[in-house]
């Protein structure tokens, strides 16, 4: 049988606040775990894996809405792949815009 932990310990392990975890439950990003007979949320490996994926996708620049969409189709690996490709294209476009701005700044610096 898997060991289950309460929300405070889950927050410490994941590096999130309790408030963030509850918010993720509220918006449907993280599924509500089973509760103890005393009403405490009990987290296990499934919730831990989900939270790690949420944090990883956030670090890649996904917003919560997109993460929810990806997790909603978690069993379709092509959904994650498509989302990553889309994010890659967006980041490349942002990079081009930044390079253009840097170029304009360089021109101004050369003129002065």
From TrEMBL:
Residues 4-73 form the HTH merR-type domain. PROSITE patterns: HTH_MERR_2. It comes from the Bacteria. Keywords: DNA-binding, Repressor, Transcription, Transcription regulation. InterPro entries: DNA-bd_dom_put_sf, MerR-type_HTH_dom, MerR_fam. The keyword ATP-binding does not apply. It holds the Pfam family MerR_1. One of its GO terms (molecular function) is DNA-binding transcription factor activity. This is HTH merR-type domain-containing protein. It comes from Clostridium drakei.
């Amino acid at each position: 049988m898997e060991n289950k932990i309460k929300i405070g310990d889950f927050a410490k392990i994941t590096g999130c606040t309790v408030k963030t975890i509850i918010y993720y439950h509220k918006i449907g990003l993280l599924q509500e775990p089973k509760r103890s007979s005393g009403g405490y949320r009990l987290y296990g490996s499934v919730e831990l894996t989900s939270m790690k994926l949420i944090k990883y996708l956030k670090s890649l620049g996904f917003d919560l809405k997109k993460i929810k969409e990806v997790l909603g189709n978690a069993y379709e690996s092509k959904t994650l792949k498509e989302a990553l490709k889309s994010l890659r294209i967006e980041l490349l476009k942002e990079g081009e815009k930044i390079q253009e701005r840097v170029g304009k700044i360089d021109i101004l610096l050369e003129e002065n």
